């Protein structure tokens, strides 16, 4: 999936993946896609809830070698 920007939040514990995602999202235009990489297992629920509450769309998430990857489209 094509992303406009990638956030590397690997090795960071909650709430830092959300903090970094929030900051990066403010720099995107509506409709652009942010890709987030995290090793925090809690990020799966946190990012899904954050995207929904912020009017964004969680397009996809995968797990590869203990790295969770998320693609969120800015609403």
TrEMBL record:
UniProt xrefs under Pfam families: TusA (PF01206)
InterPro entries: TusA-like, TusA-like_sf
Organism domain of life: Bacteria
UPF0033 domain location: 7-31
Family of this protein: Belongs to the sulfur carrier protein TusA family.
UniProt xrefs under PANTHER family: SULFUR CARRIER PROTEIN YEDF-RELATED
Protein name: UPF0033 domain-containing protein
């Amino acid at each position: 999936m094509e992303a406009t920007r990638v956030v590397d939040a690997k090795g960071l514990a909650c709430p830092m993946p959300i903090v970094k995602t929030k900051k990066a999202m403010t720099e995107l235009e509506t409709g652009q896609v942010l890709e987030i990489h995290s090793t925090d297992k809690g990020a799966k629920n946190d990012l899904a809830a954050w995207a929904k509450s912020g009017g964004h769309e969680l397009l996809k998430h995968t797990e590869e070698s203990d790295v969770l990857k998320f693609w969120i489209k800015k609403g």
